[in-house]
Amino acid sequence: MYQHPDDLHRARSVGRAAPAEFAAWLAFQEAVDREDGAVPRRYRELISVAVALVTQCSYCLDVHTAAARRHGVTAEELAETAFVTASVRAGGTLAHALLADRLFAQHAHPEARGDGPSDG
């Protein structure tokens, strides 16, 4: 739950408790945030927004929508990104439904899976 935007400033406090890991994360973040990558920064921010929508990280949404705006992303691009993300997320649900369907069928015949009562 997104408690307060000021919580973002607590990252350094948390980082002091795990300095090696925090330094590695900061280095990774700096590499991802670079301006000279093959993927332009505005697209990197749209990708970041999409991931934040899927992970439902309010802090990431705050940081990356601000960065997207700074890098020229339009409201229309942000809205389309949200719908593309929702569609892909729904596709993931369908993909897992296919797995659930197969597993459901297999549970009708546990011996075909090798996990029947005589396998223990």
UniProtKB/TrEMBL annotation:
<dbReference type="InterPro" id="IPR004675">
    <property type="entry name" value="AhpD_core"/>
</dbReference>
<feature type="domain" description="Carboxymuconolactone decarboxylase-like">
    <location>
        <begin position="19"/>
        <end position="100"/>
    </location>
</feature>
<protein>
    <submittedName>
        <fullName>Carboxymuconolactone decarboxylase family protein</fullName>
    </submittedName>
</protein>
<dbReference type="Pfam" id="PF02627">
    <property type="entry name" value="CMD"/>
</dbReference>
<dbReference type="InterPro" id="IPR003779">
    <property type="entry name" value="CMD-like"/>
</dbReference>
<dbReference type="GO" id="GO:0051920">
    <property type="term" value="F:peroxiredoxin activity"/>
</dbReference>
<dbReference type="InterPro" id="IPR029032">
    <property type="entry name" value="AhpD-like"/>
</dbReference>
